[in-house]
């Protein structure tokens, strides 16, 4: 695409406030619909690849991606969020940030390539990891080139465009992996999948965003944005270490088989949650950023989003906990049976994870990235301690330790910490998620009772029945609670508003 004839349109946001509600609702609907399609693609590819590849294949890639994903965080440096959140921004500032992203990505690409032999040595001299790491590291440059373009599209709330890019690039990457696996590529199918995703995403972003960067100008006033992004990146590092040191240590002490079971159980559990949390976040951050100067409207908007997030995710995770063996059998196959217990244990923590993740929207949109970093030092340290405590008992021990420490220690501390400042208080969080939490507890109780008294050997029959029970129990409990009824009515009104805006658009 040629240079946009009116590039300033990517930097101004005053025109968005006049129609902020409509843009947010329509954007949320578009991204949720796209995430549903991505979820279907992901599940389909998971079912196929889990049967074409082995746990050792996934474990081998897991060993390499611990390092790759860590280094990949530095391609952004938190500067995309800084671009989205900042009230006023210029062409020179965004150009400077882009070249910083490219420089950092290139540097870490070279550094990762240089460290590849050390990674292979750490895992008992497995030379396959050298080539896997080199190929995956080559994708860093594409991430650096796309960060600011994606941020500008998000800043302008062009959610349909972003959704189309994500869906297209995911389709290309998944097709690449499946074709490669069918032709016997083994673990290389997973490597090619990640590389194809980065390349196709970069091509799509540059094609759909007409802005083109100019030369860098370090005197353009990017200092505050670099500080904002630095705090965000430092927190991301801490969060990543906490979330991935389990893979590193399980792979080192217990081998590729246990790591493959653990990593795949974790991936399967998070897959549906990511299809909800990611699109809501992509809409919530630019929306809340535009409301940062209106505290009460900011509070009401966030709590409204949080309520829907809890209603969508918590009963669903409860279903997965109570039917973990059926989920693993259907979506992964019989060779993954040992992953079902890990899946259920991690699900206990996952009940609250989408809610906890949403608190990051508060820290970033309120400009509280220094608070976010301080919380990272506390919360992620506790997470690492939990992993080390459970490690002597293997993957199941780590999952059990997570299941205990997450809901009963780290989550309450996070809610208290984020509610100390800003317009959203700790009591707001508990009050908002209470109906969904109650419904989730009832779903688990109902499904455990159902499975105890009704013996079903075929998970293909049992899982649809369990889904119907979970849906019925969820709506019954929400309808019985005053706050739940308000949430259901609000959801209905949002759907009606969306239908009205679609008609008016036509």
Concise structural overview:
It is built from 19 helices and no strands. With 506 residues, the protein is an all-alpha fold. The longest helix has 68 residues.
Description of the structure:
With 506 residues, the chain is mostly helical. The chain has one domain (7-505). It contains 19 helices and no strands. The longest helix is centred in the middle third of the chain and has 68 residues, at 223-290.
Helix fraction bin: over 70%
| Number of helical segments with 4 or more residues | 19
Largest sheet: none
Report the sheet-strand fraction: under 5%
Key attributes of the depicted protein:
single chain; 506 residues; mainly alpha; 19 helices; globular; disordered C terminus
Task: List the topology elements.
Blueprint: H1 14-17, H2 20-52, H3 55-72, H4 79-85, H5 91-122, H6 128-137, H7 140-155, H8 159-182, H9 188-208, H10 223-290, H11 295-322, H12 324-331, H13 339-350, H14 353-365, H15 369-390, H16 394-418, H17 426-453, H18 459-480, H19 482-505
Helix pairs in contact: 2-8, 2-10, 2-19, 3-5, 3-6, 3-10, 4-7, 4-10, 5-6, 5-7, 7-9, 8-9, 10-11, 10-13, 10-14, 10-15, 10-16, 11-13, 11-14, 11-17, 11-18, 12-13, 12-18, 13-16, 14-16, 15-16, 17-18, 18-19
């Amino acid at each position: 695409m040629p240079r946009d004839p009116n590039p300033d349109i990517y930097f101004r946001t005053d025109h968005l406030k006049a129609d902020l509600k409509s843009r947010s609702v329509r954007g949320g609907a578009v991204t949720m619909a796209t995430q549903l399609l991505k979820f279907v693609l992901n599940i389909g590819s998971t079912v196929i690849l889990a049967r074409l590849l082995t746990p050792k294949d996934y474990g081998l890639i897991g060993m390499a991606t611990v390092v790759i994903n860590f280094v990949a965080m530095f391609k952004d440096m938190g500067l995309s969020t800084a671009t989205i959140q900042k009230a006023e921004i210029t062409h020179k500032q965004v150009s400077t940030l882009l070249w910083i992203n490219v420089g950092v990505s290139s540097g870490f690409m070279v550094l990762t390539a240089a460290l590849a032999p050390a990674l292979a040595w750490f895992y008992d001299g497995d030379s396959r990891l050298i080539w896997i790491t080199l190929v995956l590291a080559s994708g860093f440059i594409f991430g650096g080139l796309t960060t600011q373009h994606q941020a500008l599209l998000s800043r302008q709330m062009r959610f349909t465009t972003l959704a189309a890019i994500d869906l297209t690039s995911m389709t290309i990457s998944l097709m690449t992996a499946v074709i490669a696996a069918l032709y016997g590529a083994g673990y290389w199918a997973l490597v090619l999948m990640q590389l194809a995703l980065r390349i196709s995403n970069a091509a799509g972003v540059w094609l759909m965003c007409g802005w083109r960067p100019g030369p860098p100008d370090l005197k353009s006033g990017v200092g505050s944005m670099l500080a904002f992004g630095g705090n965000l990146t430092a927190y991301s590092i801490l969060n990543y270490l906490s979330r991935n040191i389990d893979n590193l240590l399980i792979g080192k002490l217990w081998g590729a088989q246990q790591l493959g079971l653990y990593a795949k159980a974790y991936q399967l559990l998070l897959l549906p949650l990511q299809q909800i949390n990611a699109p809501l976040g992509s809409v919530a951050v630019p929306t809340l950023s535009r409301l940062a100067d209106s505290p009460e409207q900011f509070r009401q908007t966030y709590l409204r989003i949080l309520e829907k997030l809890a209603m969508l995710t918590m009963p669903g995770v409860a279903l997965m906990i109570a039917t973990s063996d059926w989920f693993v059998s259907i979506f992964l196959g019989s060779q993954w049976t040992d992953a079902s217990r890990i899946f259920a244990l991690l699900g206990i923590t996952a009940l609250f994870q989408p809610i906890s993740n949403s608190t990051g929207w508060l820290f970033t949109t309120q400009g509280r990235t220094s608070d976010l970093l301080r919380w990272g030092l506390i919360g992620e340290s506790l997470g690492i301690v939990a992993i080390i405590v459970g490690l002597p008992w293997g993957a199941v021990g780590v999952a059990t330790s997570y299941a205990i420490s997450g809901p009963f220690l780290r989550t309450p501390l996070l809610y208290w910490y984020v509610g100390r400042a800003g317009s959203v208080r700790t009591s707001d969080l508990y009050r908002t998620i209470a109906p969904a939490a109650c419904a989730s507890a009832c779903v688990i109780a109902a499904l455990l009772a159902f499975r105890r008294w009704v013996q079903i050997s075929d998970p293909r029959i049992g899982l649809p029945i369990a889904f119907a029970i979970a849906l019925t129990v969820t709506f019954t409990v929400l309808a019985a609670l005053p706050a739940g009824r308000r949430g259901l009515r609000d959801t209905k009104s949002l759907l009606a508003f969306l239908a009205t805006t679609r008609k008016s658009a036509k």
